[in-house]
Amino acid sequence: MPGMADPRFERAVIALCVHDENGAIGIGIGHKRAGISFRGLLKQLDIDPGQAPDNAVHHGGPVEPGRGFILHSTDWGGQDTLHVTGPRGEIFAMTGTIDVLKAIAEGRGPSNWIASLGYAGWGEGQLDEEMTRHGWFAAQGTPQILFDTPTDERWAAAFKAEGIDTRLLASETGAA
User: According to the lineage, what is the superkingdom (predicted)?
Assistant: First the structure.
């Protein structure tokens, strides 16, 4: 889901993983973290990077910025993997445990994945309230936007998938 008015989330793309009566959790996939790569992250965790590609690590959100999450295709699952579904079925899975990192390093992990540090979290009813304000847009997520679209193109791609040309968006709203 693209953006919100908070400057920390400027042009953010957040993959919403949980949204129920207790609150919501999302992982940012629209901005890369500077100064760290996936192989570097593995080395910091004393995991031999092995076959892991040196992909970017994304800014998952402001909450627990040192905690890692892998959003991945549903062809791999671990003990604590959460499967995320939408109106059209399964979209992706999320794993926040070290087993997915080891699997990727060993070449037996998911076929598609995104690494993020941190997450965005909302308490009971908080996200629903924020969604009524300017700056939010809920788009249907797809594996293509998550895994086949470059990071810096995901924000526009999410709007485009909903039939919206981002060049026509106004940066401010008014009252009539």
Answer: Bacteria
The average pLDDT across 111-125 equals 96
pLDDT at 98 over 90: yes
The mean pLDDT value of the chain amounts to 89
Residue 37's DSSP bridge partners are: 56
Give bridge partners of residue 28 from the DSSP assignment: 14
* Torsion sign, CA atoms 161, 73, 85, 7: negative
Q: pLDDT tens-digit profile of 50-69?
A: 989 999 999 999 999 999 99
Taken in order of first residue, the domains within the chain and their CATH numbers are: 7-168 (3.40.1740.10)
